Every structure is written in structure tokens, then in C-alpha cells.
């Protein structure tokens, strides 16, 4: 497991070393002390989790260390959790956004390899999220799987706007796993 020193974290976050030590001592950032010397070390995964929890961008240098992740966008939490269970069982990291605006913010802060997306959400709907995502050059390779209970014409419109695949609700875990594994290994 790769670790970072307090100094490296201070550099990534552009803060004073003492600030990082306070984060660790207060429990905001998980860390541990090296035996004998007492220097702090933080696991890269814990640092990335800290950045995500506090809405801070993940440094490019750490992107390759992070496992490929899936952003799940659905305003119905039971459905989002169901998708999350399937994705985690397949061995992938996940984040959940409960609306289109939150999805846009998370996309700008993170670099998921795939996004599952509901079309019917209050505020910014799934179509708007697809259009926004496809306008960002950073996300041109992001795979978008629309999971919706809407009719075939609505699903076809999502494909026309730039979705890579669609899955009708209710979906089978087997079908979802197949699509996830196909997209995440491309």
C-alpha cells in the first residue's frame, strides 16, 4: 500500500504542513505514525477519500493510483444502492450522486471511468447531464450507461445525445454486471 508523508499532502493541497498534522490529529484525515520516528503517514486511498469528502480535486499524479471508479447518478437511493452493490461485487469503486447538478460537480472533481445515469430526476435531468458531460473534453472517454424506466423512444434519445448503452428498469444484476465489466475493461 502506497503512503504519503504530511509534507507531500501539504504540497498537494497547497496548505501548511501544520494544517495537515491538525487534520490527522483531529481525525479528519486517517493517518498513522511511523514507529520510532513519529512521522505521520497517510494511505493514498485514505487521502483520496478525504479529498472526496471535502470536495477537493484529486491531484493528477494520484489519479493512476486510484482504482477505476463508477459514478452512480440516481435520485432514488434504493436504486443507487442496488447499482452500487453490483458494481462493488464486480470489484469497482463507486460514488453516488443523487441529482444532475451534484453529478456535474463530482465529475469536475473526480475522474470516473463510467457513469450510470437515471433520466428522470428533479432539476437537471439525465439528458442535460449527458449533454454537459459530452461537452467536457476531460470526459470524452467516460462510458455512460443510462438506467431508466422510461420508454424506448426516451432511451433512444439518450443514445443520440451521447450515452454508450441503456438498460431498462427494472434491470437484472447479471445484465448490469456484464455491461459494467465490459465498459470498465475497455
UniProtKB/TrEMBL annotation:
The modification 4-aspartylphosphate is found at residue 118. The keyword Phosphoprotein applies. It holds the Pfam family HTH_17. SUPFAM superfamilies: CheY-like, Putative DNA-binding domain. One of its GO terms (biological process) is phosphorelay signal transduction system. Keywords: Phosphoprotein. The keyword Phosphoprotein applies. Residues 69-184 form the Response regulatory domain. This is Response regulator. It comes from Alteromonas australica.
